[in-house]
Design brief:
The complex is a heterodimer of chains A (342) and B (565).
Chain A (H helix, E strand, L loop, with lengths): L1 H19 L3 H29 L30 H14 L1 H4 L2 E6 L3 E6 L2 H24 L5 H10 L2 E3 L2 E3 L1 H19 L1 H6 L2 H23 L4 H12 L11 H16 L7 H7 L27 H14 L23
Antiparallel strand pairs in A: 1-2, 3-4
Helix pairs in contact in A: 1-9, 1-11, 2-11, 5-6, 5-7, 7-9, 9-11
Chain B lengths: L5 H4 L29 H6 L21 H15 L1 H8 L12 H6 L6 H16 L1 H6 L10 H11 L7 H5 L6 H14 L5 H13 L7 H19 L14 E4 L3 H4 L3 H15 L3 E2 L16 H18 L3 E4 L3 H15 L25 E3 H10 L15 E4 L2 H5 L5 H10 L30 H7 L1 H14 L3 E4 L2 H14 L4 E4 H8 L55
Parallel strand pairs in B: 1-2, 1-3, 3-4, 5-6, 6-7
Helix pairs in contact in B: 3-10, 6-10, 8-10, 12-14, 14-23, 15-16, 17-19, 19-23
The complex binds iron/sulfur cluster (SF4) (2 copies).
The site of one iron/sulfur cluster has 15 residues of chain B, from helix 6, helix 9 and helix 10.
Chain lengths: 342, 565
């Protein structure tokens, strides 16, 4: 954890120093382009690599009754028997974290007695975090588009329901910070989760905290020149990069951390977002016995044929009155019963 | 091997140790691992590197290029399985799966948390196959493959019953069972298997079944069941073997043919088929539905399973029914058609009694006996007297494989409610897709592993204890041959007073055969409950839960066979 924190702080300092040393052009144009390229290229490479590997067997995890007899109700989404059902299942996973909602925790009490509790907080925090992040990204479209699409305005209206001082207080800003804190705390405080956590798990948390923190500071405390930001952003997306003067170091810290996060994304666990769509335990319908699934690398194997079997055991079979394909030696009486135990 | 007393065993700490998991070497403690596969058994299947070795030895007699073999094997599998790639890359270590594994709950060993079990393999994957792992090493959870890592793999991948419970809870559907399957394939490349798997697969390959029963011995065992049925019911049944031209081939797990209490389930099958006059045959060549190849490698699974279709083809049957068995059905449902099909020499299954087309088995052409029997009951084709099971207060254990790799949840419950009047489900968190493993699946059932089995079985047993104390449940029904072997000792240890039965044993008890004598005992020879008082359906312990989409269970004998479909 320490190492990830140190790294994040170092990155912040680099950006700060860069801005102070007049490297605005590098921080404002070169790194974002580099980051964008790495991100796009990396994610495409990763997904193509996944997609190129075949799915030899149909292995959905079935979380409900199968479709079997017509009068028996089946779990249309949790154990889908149609493509539509499987699509719905993936959609529920992506949009509402369906599986995480099942989470529980146990306690071993005297007796012995095992009790299970519904553990919804991870689900709540995960959902709040991802949805808020999504809303915040969408709000950022204001900087990248001219004219700004109407839905961005609606979203801002809905999100900025509460007033904080002069400007609207975005609910999603609050939610993202609270959720991040919770996710961080549970990683540190739950012994088992701490035990499995890697520096690679803390790093994205700290990076995103840095991004969100600098964003919040710019919006509510050290107001940034929004027109200048928009000029820079529009310049980037229209491939006419400009570096408007007057942007604070804080802004470059924000931008730099975002760039680093984007570059880091394809090479880390952050690709999990793409993983859900391709996960064979979730995106396949449980029609295993109804429709034949083809394995592209199926190869012939050595089997023990019936002929070999009969060849070896024919006299026993004949003696026991079991039909055989080929007549064997005349049956003898009283063959000792051979049994091979383990 | 004797296990510690329950009080001892229950001293479980779920707090991880102070040393990080990469710095905590594995310890082979007696009672928690299975004996290694015998060279002789590996040789039968031409599996690599048969030799004598022991996990307790320092020197596992690995081939000199063992690392290359493993890494090459991993590379090959990454190209073959999208699931493996995604499961290696996508885990965020959220820990949602961590406490869902029965082995973690029962042992507290952090490497039994599914996430960490997977990391054992993932760490090597990162080191060898990802840029980040090559550059940053431990920062991103990468480590070199060495003998210590390999030993850890052996210990913990043979401490996972491939039950898939963790995968129900993972937000990305990461299935540690799949990871275990692949890891065991890699171990098998070095001849590292356990004997409780290696010897059954060798037997199965040669003789058709795990026990190595030769054809005449298999027939003897079935004949023994036939005699027992005659003793209890007075009805003579004559099953046929390897009969060409039968309509249906019936394949059961061999555990039902020879071992108590599986034999009573087998009697149930025979009585059912007799009662409806089914035109079926058994096979001595395909005398095993269970397939421990699943616990070895995809290839061995395919090699063993091939005999079922081959035999169906040779005998010229129309379709196949499979008995009550868990991992057998994982293979039949998820893999058989893909691996051993197409079954174009068979016909789409239609029940000869009710005319029901089993649409869900249209391609594989193999039907689960619970689907078959539930359909018979729904159509009123069975003559049943559930009061004969009145001495049993029943709960149902969903076996992992039919639950989470198939979804066979309501068929067995429907059957039980038709043949028993006292049925109670265990708490919600422990049944259906949340079901807890018996703790002995995936080849981990030998006696030398008893302590680990009892630990892994604790959550299941504890849920049984709950209904045992609350409703007086005295019978645990299941549809798996491994369960029938593993649950009795588990119950004796954690919940004494609860017996274990197959669902079709209950059917056999309740089924009124044509021309049968009045029964005085159940199939096990226990006296039947006195008729007085059995007609009171409102008494305590009578379940009247609704059936999904169907009419409620009959609370009295169903004396109206032959109702039109
Ligand atoms: S639930 Fe899934 S993503 Fe979370 S730790 Fe377990 S395997 Fe990883
Ligand atoms: S498959 Fe079952 S035994 Fe294996 S890690 Fe998951 S929960 Fe544990």
């Amino acid at each position: 954890m320490g190492i990830s924190l140190a790294l994040t702080v170092a990155l912040i300092l680099v950006a700060w120093a860069g801005a102070a040393a007049g490297l605005q052009a590098v921080l404002g144009t070169v790194t974002p382009y580099l980051a964008g390229l790495t991100f796009l290229g990396g994610v495409i490479w990763r997904v193509v690599r996944w997609a190129r590997a075949p799915v030899p067997f149909r292995i959905p995890t079935t979380c409900g009754q199968e479709r079997s007899l017509p009068w028996m109700r089946y779990a249309t989404v949790d154990n889908p028997a149609t493509t539509l059902g499987a699509v719905a299942r993936v959609a529920l996973e992506v949009l509402f974290f369906r599986s995480l909602l099942r989470n529980s925790r146990f306690e071993l009490r005297e007796g012995p007695k095992l009790v299970y509790f519904w553990e919804k907080w991870l689900w709540v925090a995960g959902l709040a975090f991802h949805w808020s992040l999504f809303a915040i990204l969408t709000r950022h479209l204001r900087f990248f588009t001219q004219p700004v699409p109407a839905f961005v305005g609606w979203l801002e209206g809905a999100d900025g329901f509460f007033q904080a001082g002069l400007s609207a207080l975005y609910l999603t800003d609050v939610a993202v910070l609270v959720a991040l804190t919770y996710l961080f705390l549970r990683r540190v405080l739950i012994p088992q989760v701490r035990y499995v956590s890697l520096p690679a798990d803390y790093l994205p948390l700290f990076l995103i905290m840095g991004v969100a923190g600098s964003g919040v500071l710019m919006r509510y405390f050290f107001r940034v020149d929004v027109t200048a930001v928009k000029e820079l952003a529009l310049g980037l997306v229209t491939f006419h990069p400009v570096v408007p003067p007057g942007l604070s170091a804080l802004f470059y810290v924000h931008l730099f951390l975002v760039s680093v996060l984007l570059m880091y994304f394809p090479f880390s666990k952050l690709v999990h977002i793409a993983g859900i769509f391709l996960s064979p335990t979730r995106n396949l319908a449980n029609t295993n016995r109804e429709r034949r699934h083809i394995n592209p690398w199926n190869y012939p194997v050595k089997v023990h044929t019936y002929e070999e079997y009969e060849e070896e055991f024919r006299k026993h079979m004949i003696a026991a009155g079991i039909p055989v394909e080929k007549a064997g030696p005349p049956a003898q009486v009283g063959i000792p019963v051979e049994k091979e135990g383990q | 091997m004797s296990a510690p007393k329950p009080q001892e065993l229950l001293k479980i700490s779920h707090r991880p140790p102070r040393t990080g998991w990469m710095d905590t070497p594995v310890q082979f403690r007696r009672g928690t691992w299975c004996y290694p596969g015998k060279a002789r058994s590996l040789e039968v299947l031409d599996l690599p590197f048969p030799r004598q070795w022991s996990p307790e030895d320092d020197d596992w007699k690995l081939p000199p290029n063992w690392k290359e073999i493993v890494l090459e094997g991993l590379r090959e599998r990454l190209h073959r399985f999208r699931s493996l790639q995604i499961f290696m890359d996508a885990c965020v270590r959220c820990g949602a799966c961590a406490d869902k594994c029965h082995f973690f709950i029962g042992s507290g060993d952090p490497k039994n948390m599914p996430v960490l079990r997977a990391e054992l393999l993932r760490s090597v994957y990162r080191r060898e196959f990802t840029a980040a792992g090559k550059l940053l090493g431990r920062m991103v959870g990468a480590r070199d493959l060495d003998e210590r890592v390999l030993k850890e793999w052996f210990y913990y991948f043979f401490q996972c019953t491939e039950c898939r419970r963790c995968s129900v809870f993972c937000p990305f559907g990461i299935d540690t069972a799949e990871i275990t399957i692949i890891a065991r394939e890699l171990l098998n490349l070095l001849g590292l298997n356990v004997d409780w798997i290696a010897t059954p697969i060798a037997n199965c390959y040669r003789t058709g079944n795990h026990l190595g029963l030769l054809p005449h011995a298999f027939k003897d065992m079935v004949d023994f069941c036939v005699e027992e049925i005659q003793n209890v019911t007075g009805v003579g049944i004559e099953p046929t073997f390897n009969r060409k031209g039968a309509e249906i081939l019936f394949v059961a797990p061999s555990g039902d043919v020879f071992a108590d209490p599986g034999i009573y389930t087998f009697m149930g099958y025979l009585m059912l088929f007799h009662a409806i006059g089914l035109d079926y045959t058994l096979s001595t060549y395909a005398s095993e539905g269970g397939n421990f190849g699943l616990f070895t490698s995809h290839e061995v699974m395919k090699r063993l399973n091939a005999k079922i279709y081959a035999e169906a083809k040779r005998l010229g049957v129309k379709w196949i029914i499979g008995g009550e068995c868990g991992h057998m059905w994982r293979v039949l449902h998820q893999y058989m058609d893909t691996m051993n099909g197409p079954a174009d020499f068979l016909e789409e299954p239609v029940s000869p009694i009710t005319g029901t087309r089993f649409e869900n088995a249209r391609s594989t052409r193999m039907v689960h006996i619970c689907e078959f029997t539930a359909d018979l009951m729904k159509h009123g084709r069975l003559n049943l007297d559930p009061s004969r099971n009145d001495h049993l207060v029943v709960t149902f254990h969903d076996s992992c494989n039919p639950s989470r790799a198939m979804g066979l949840l309501d068929e067995p419950r429907y059957i039980i409610r038709n043949v028993c009047r006292h049925f109670f489900d265990m708490p919600e968190n422990t049944i259906r897709e949340y079901t807890f493993c018996c703790g002995s699946g995936a080849g981990l059932g030998p006696d030398e592993n008893l302590e680990m089995r009892l630990r892994g079985g604790l959550p299941r047993a504890n849920a049984v204890k709950y209904v045992h104390e609350k409703y007086g449940v005295n019978t645990l029904a299941c549809i798996c041959a491994i369960d029938r072997a593993a649950l009795p000792p588990l119950m004796d240890y954690w919940v004494p007073g609860v017996g274990v039965t197959g669902v079709h044993e209950l059917v056999g008890n309740a089924l009124i055969l044509p021309d049968e004598d009045e029964r005085t005992t159940d199939l096990r020879g226990n006296p039947l409950p006195q008729p007085a008082g059995t007609g009171d359906p409102s008494g305590p312990g009578v379940s009247d839960l609704d059936e999904p989409g169907g009419p409620g269970p009959r609370s009295g004998p169903n004396t109206a066979p032959g109702r039109e479909a």
